[in-house]
Amino acid sequence: MKKTDLEKNKALKIVGRMNAAVPPGRVPGAAAAPDRREQRKLDQAAGLVSFPVKLRQPLIDALRARADADGVPVNELVNTLLADALKA
Questions:
Q1: Where does the source fall among the domains of life (predicted)?
Q2: What's the domain range around 73?
Q3: Residues 6 or more apart in contact with residue 35 via CB below 8 angstroms
């Protein structure tokens, strides 16, 4: 084998070890987030239903800004705003 092939193999081993390592920001032993199937079951138990809607970008930006200002998730904000609008 050539020296370049040996170096390439060493680099591939290093990359493989890096990919197998724990991603940054995750603490070993901490509770993992539920996968999609579990999250769907949790949402169904809470009475949540997926309802995709297409909105214009300025409205989405305003919703995200208001949700950040209020400190609530966008889903809860939209739910509250729609409920208030339908009551009127």
A1: Bacteria
A2: 51-88
A3: none
Give the count of domains, the chain: 1
Q: For the segment 18-63, what is each residue's pLDDT rounded down to a tens digit?
A: 877 666 665 555 566 778 888 889 889 988 888 889 999 999 999 9
Residue 62 makes CB contacts below 8 A (sequence gap 6+) with none
DSSP 42-86: HHHHTT---------HHHHHHHHHHHHHHTS-HHHHHHHHHHHHH
Looking at this protein, which amino acid is placed at residue 53?
A: V
Residues 6+ apart with CB under 8 A from 28: 22
Residue 67 CA, chain-centre distance (Å), reads 16
Residue 22 lies in a domain: no
